[in-house]
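If your schedule permits, I should be very grateful for your opinion on a structural question. Kindly check, if you would, that the fold set down in the tokens agrees with what the sequence suggests. Thank you for your consideration; the sequence and its tokens are set out here:
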Amino acid sequence: MDREILLIVDPMCSWCWGFSPTIGAMAEEFAGQAPIFPIVGGLRPLTEDPMTGQAKAEVRHHWADVEKASGQSFDYSFFDRDGFIYDTEPACRALVTVRTLKPEAALGFLAAQHRAFYAENRDITDAAVLAELAETAGVDRDAFLAAFPTRKMIYLTATDFFRSQSMGVTGFPTVVLRSEGNLSLLTAGFQPFAALKPQLENWIAGGVDAEKEPAKA
């Protein structure tokens, strides 16, 4: 049976970082039966203005909530940055680039992006940082740097954003199960793997223990 787990995320989404262990566990447990296909949703694509003090305070509050719920660590020295532009399009495009060049490296690259940004305070809007992370994920650095700025990758990234919106996704992470062309919602938002595993097992076994159509996230 044709099955696929659609993972709608953004590399600069804190709840997606909180969800990272769940992604890893899903891949380890079920990828052999249903591959995980990451789709970038675009949290704040093409933002042009630097973060204000108010924006930093709001984001810091979100990080604290994610840390409490998930146990994932954050480097709060990020908020000492001046003039940071929270544009998530480059990080999203980097994931699309890796997914295109070496599909099997995409989830590892996403995990590396999350870790670099949230736990190590690295700037994943920077092409050089993204190229280094791609290389550690097993993608040729020069091939990445050649593909990353192209119109093709910009277009494919925008196509992902549109696909996410067309499925009714408005928040990340969202996981949608695709089986023979039918879509069902597994989760719209953070969940620990233990909460999702029974539904995934039922779906793999041919059950329908999920919403038939993806709901608003």
Residues 53-70 form the longest helix (18 residues). The domain at 42-166 is CATH 1.10.472.60 (Cyclin A; domain 1). The mean pLDDT is 94.
